[in-house]
Amino acid sequence: MIAKWLRSPQVLISAAVFLVTLGVYIATLNPTTPFWDAGEFITTSHIVGVPHQPGTPLYVLMGRVFDVVFGSADITQASMNTAWAVNFMSAFFSALAVMLVYLIIWELARRADPDAGWLAHIGGMVGAFFLAFSETFWTNAIEAEVYGLSAFMLALLTWLAIRWYDHREHPGSNNLLLLMIYLLALGVGFHLGSLLVYPGVFMLVLLASRRQLPVFDLLLMSMG
Fold first, then answer.
1. Cis peptide leading into 57, omega within 30 of 0?
2. What is the pLDDT of residue 200?
């Protein structure tokens, strides 16, 4: 079952979209410290400090993880490799966001036209690559910025909302709602813009559910 799923067209294409996007981002990645906020984010990731308000604590922690994994223990090269590692974090999460955008477009296209077939896949790839190589997104994907990680969170929550919609009649779908609420709260630690997905998800849950949701779950979503 798992092997068959891994060979499905959407899985193979999404992997290809991710790898192509990440490859281009790595080839064009800033090797050191770019201008503006990037230097601040690189520094605070290395020392686990506090950048400008609102602080983006989860971004700093993730940046430190990438610094430890991809940075250098050689003190003479530490500053340069730290910059590359934190810049690479943006590229990695931006490529994941692009992959999820392909999946979202494919999911919506095949629902709009069940006979779309490969056109849904092609439309998903075109839309994903238009985003990936648009000037603003590409620029932020190759430097230490919060927007790539925020875009990943927005895309992930949107994709999970579609998954919830497919399984909304199952009692276990409430667990997926709780996961989305948890991720929504975590996303604020990347960038406050992650909250932009909340109204759409909330309205989808409120209007699409055919069974009454527990009051506690609705309260959690309302406080998201």
1. no
2. 81
